[in-house]
Amino acid sequence: MAEKPTYYITTPIYYPSGKLHIGNSYTTVACDVLARYKRLQGFDVFYLTGTDEHGLKIEQKAEKLGMTPKAYVDQMAAQIKELWQTLEISNTKFIRTTDDYHEKAVQQIFERLLKQGDIYKGTYKGWYSVSDEEYFTESQLAEVYRDDQGKMIGGKAPSGHEVQLVEEECYFFKMSKYADRLVKYYDEHPDFIIPASRKNEMLNNFIKPGLEDLALTRTSFDWGVNVPSDPKHVIYVWIDALCNYITALGYGSDDDSLFNKYWPADVQMVGKEIVRFHTIYWPIILMALDLPLPKHILGHGWLLMKDGKMSKSKGNVVYPEMLAERYGLDAVRYYLTKSIPFGNDGQFTPEDFVERINSDLANDLGNLLNRTVAMINKYRDGKIPALHAGVTAFDGDLEMLAQTTVAEYTAEMDSFHFTNALNTLWKFVARTNKYIDETEPWVLAKDDSKHEQLDSVLAHLAASLRLTAILIQPVMTHAPKAIFTQLGLALENMDIKGVDYLALPAETQVVAKGTPIFPRLDVEEEAAFIKSKMTKNEKAKGRKAMAEKAEKQEKQTPATDETAGLTLNKKPIRFDKFDKVEMRVVEIKEVSKVAGADKLLKFRVDAGDEGGDRQILSGIAKWYPDYETLVGKKVIAVVNLKPREMKGEVSQGMLLSAEYDDGKTVQLITVPDNIPAGSDVG
């Protein structure tokens, strides 16, 4: 038997500073979907996930809890492993950066790079974020604090975390040495970074301005991997963490057989917030080690709430264990896979979660199975008739769509467009439901001369369910087997590779009474339940109470001219008037000129809308001759203006800009990259 082709998939390794929520879980579920799909196609898959357990933040967290760092990360790693078991993640290995073999390999890698001159010792003085485990220059900070004399005294990283000034002896990596080689690799491998927009961000924001040497070590804490030749230094977390992808395969050990078999990785999937580390630092480390680079680095979007990213402080965190326990694992895995469109952010609301279960799973798929099993029992004593092509006038269309569905589904899965793959499959499910209405089997059953047509309809319905069950396997771990079992089909051959719609076993006995695999839910009741399980936001309650109090006082206080001495260009307005304006952070995805309009630029922006990107026109072409450089920037837009038409194009909002120098200069108001598109501004 020929040896199976290999396929290596990795998630980022998770930082165990807190409990993981559904946003954190997305990457692991998405990678699991890919791993299961590739196995069903006949690949030998190695799927890696794990935890990133070193760093000052972990040391401080453990100290606060009265624990040793090792005891703390042992506890957190066990929690995360348990979560992956709950979500039925099929990972091959779980690596921890505190594993002995990993620490030894990292030390070997560091000493090799030091010996060959890629690492040198110096002194670092600058700004450091403990929460991000990252150094920043002043220009990289989202906000800078200064004293009365204008001297910088602190600031905030793009993540929003405070930075502190550190000065210590440090080892540096000569990143600039490899910058040109990295850009050349980007050019020669256009699908190395997926989606391509992430590559433009890396080039424009980090490489073209000048790639700075990377600080690699710290001496102010102990929780990490020590430099063997200089033990007072702890290796900086990103070098430690990134090398897990090769040390997990035995690189740097006495047995590197797995490394030789599986490396380079086929897909390394990460959230967009850590794309820089995986597409700049990681490939440079590999280049310095003379190792091949991964085939693809995929930077996916975030699963957001209406008020932005999930966080305990906002009180909007949803945990996957709770959803799986109440609604079943298949519903959770399906929702996560469907909710983040390729390259964009997705949005979770309790109402959407419940409604998707009802519409996609209960109505479309579950009801199709219930009706099919019931009709086969009623009209053919529970036995699936033999499938013959083209018997009724509607068979050919369904058969052709089945072939098209397999081809399109496979293409979408192979290109990591999981949402599109599910959309393709659900169009087929919807078409099969329509097929029932077209053929009217209950009418055919009343006419003995329509015996063959009825057999054909029932067989086509069973074939459609069989195909759907086979294709949905990477996403759902229970429903496919339940569908096969209710249809009386054997579970042995459910491989996606070579699946044939017409290869339906005949005379199979269906179950006497089908059981709904996805019961319908009460949307209002279940949405309320999910909201009750979300972490509470005491700050929001406080702000609301303060606003209500201020409004009450305003109504009771006689009107006075509080604007005396203020320079205003427009009449003062009450807060309730201003509050009607909806502003959001939007990410610029594409910019172009508007034909026949010298002043207008046409922007395609991600505003966090469920329906995808929106278009906004802005008359700022004069001030942005190099408008392509705006791609990837985060700006502020008014999003609830009524759409208006200009020069034959529709504008669905307004971008905010600042005007100064007596109107000679206009500049878009940008916001830090860490703020998610769709976040409210107010």
Automatic annotation (TrEMBL):
**Where is this gene product found?**
Cytoplasm
Q: Which GO terms describe its biological process?
A: methionyl-tRNA aminoacylation
The regions listed as transmembrane in this protein's record are none
Motif 'HIGH' region: which residue numbers? 14-24
Signal peptide positions (record):
none
Region: Disordered, residue numbers: 539-563
Bias (Basic and acidic residues) ranges? 539-555
Query: Which InterPro entries does the annotation name?
Result: aa-tRNA-synth_I_CS (IPR001412), Anticodon_Met (IPR041872), M/V/L/I-tRNA-synth_anticd-bd (IPR013155), Met-tRNA-synth_bsu_C (IPR004495), Met-tRNA_synth (IPR014758), Met-tRNA_synth_2 (IPR023457), Methionyl/Leucyl_tRNA_Synth (IPR015413), MetRS_core (IPR033911)
Q: Where is this motif: 'KMSKS' region?
A: 309-313
List the EC numbers from the record: 6.1.1.10
Keyword vocabulary terms for this entry: Aminoacyl-tRNA synthetase, ATP-binding, Cytoplasm, Ligase, Nucleotide-binding, Protein biosynthesis, RNA-binding, tRNA-binding
Q: How does it assemble?
A: Homodimer.
Question: What is the designated name of this protein?
Answer: Methionine--tRNA ligase
Source organism (scientific name): Ligilactobacillus saerimneri 30a
The record lists the lineage as: Bacteria, Bacillati, Bacillota, Bacilli, Lactobacillales
